[in-house]
Amino acid sequence: MINRYIDPEKIDIKEDCAEIDEIYAGERIEGFSLRGFELVEKADSFEDGIELVIPSFLSDVEVAGFHIKVACELSEEAVSALESLIGEVLNRIKGVEYKFRKEKVVLNLTNIDQKTFECMAKLLYDAFKKIPVVEKVRVKIILDKEEFDKILKYAARKHEERERLFQRKEGEVDKFYICTSCQYYLPGHGCVISPERPSPCGTTWIEAKAAEELEVVKYYSPAKKGEKIAESEYLGVNSAIEAVTEGKISKISLHSVLKNPPSIGLYSELIIFYDPDKDGFGIVDRNFKGKTPLGLTFEEMEKIMVGQQVEGFVGASYAYLKSEKFLKDEGGWNRVYWVSPNVYEYIKSFVDKRLLEKLKGN
Ligand code: SF4
After folding, report:
1. What atom in ligand 1 is closest to the CA of residue 193?
2. Residue nearest to atom 1 of ligand 1 (CA)
3. Cβ of 200 less than 6 Å from ligand 1
4. CATH for 170-361, among 3.40.50.1370, 3.40.970.20, 1.20.140.10, 3.90.1150.10?
């Protein structure tokens, strides 16, 4: 059992440099949009404090990487869970909107100036420093593209290593998690997270577990699995999702697209869709702006399904593509006939060569 270290209500992150309040957590920002990543890792020898890596012209900035080092006795699981604290803190700042996770972060800002980034760094420093077991903190915000690309690659490797290290089977655990973070925008929404189905925005079961136990954030709640009533359906999970969605969704088949698929919040990395003409499935990523063979773009599909259970469409994270339970209810990879180019790049190291040839041709 991991001890409870943080009560988010008690992370007092007041600084004079910005207006900070939980009411800004649902704020939508139009203005500047930066590509980002987040990484929290354990380290021993570093200087406590904050650091900004800025390019020669701040007005040209396109990226923002958040790299936080902590010196502490926490496990790798717990340190990884601390990454959720970054969005939790930054979203409380007026004029700042932090979306998505890991290497897919998007940071929307009303203003781009050094003061804003310094303020973010200070707030993150304060928040991490308030965790009693954390002895030293180094908050680095990387705005320089060259340095950003370097650390982005490092962060992706680190997250992949953690995925491997944290692997669990659904049969080995007695509870899943429900994330309600998107309720700021989608009242009554919840995403189910199982060991073999990370959230559509990429949070793994072990991260949700550690975050809930640490009380880093308030939005992961455990859902007892209960009796297994079908290949990917559990009585306890159905009751939990029914309670969260106020009766809107009462059945979830975790590895299905066609029957009671999980619903998605705002941050799904991928959409898996059913194409009746092919009797098969396509997978499109958020950055693919063209039309899929179904005649719809990612954005158009997302509008149809966000916060809803829509048979024929389901959201997923890249990490789910590696799951042994991937689309288990529908026949798995054999039923996939089309993927967008980014998805192809991602799967080519682990999907069967013959299938890859078929997907390349489509
Ligand atoms: S998309 Fe789902 S899992 Fe991700 S933050 Fe929103 S509610 Fe949570």
Report:
1. 3
2. 265
3. yes
4. 3.40.970.20
The Cα diameter of the chain in Å comes to: 59
The secondary structure of 274-314, three-state, reads EECCCCEEEEEECCCCCCCCCCCCHHHHHHHHECCCCCCEE
Instruction: Encode pLDDT of 93-144 as tens digits.
Output: 999 999 988 999 999 999 899 999 999 999 999 999 988 788 999 999 999 9
Per-residue pLDDT reduced to its tens digit, 22-77 = 888 878 899 999 999 999 999 999 999 999 999 988 888 999 999 999 998 888 88
pLDDT in tens, 205-225: 998 988 887 777 788 999 999
The answer to whether the CB of 265 is under 6 A from ligand 1 is: yes
In this prediction the pTM is 0.81
For residue 220, which of 194, 242, 239 has the smallest C-alpha distance?
194
CATH 3.30.1650.10 range(s) for the chain read 8-165
Q: What is the C-alpha separation between 2 and 121, in angstroms, rounded?
A: 27
Ligand 1 center–CA 38 separation, angstroms: 16
Testing ligand 1's pocket by substitution, the residue of 38, 84, 97, 182 carrying the most ligand atoms inside 8 A of its CB is 182
Q: Which CATH topology does 8-165 take?
A: 3.30.1650
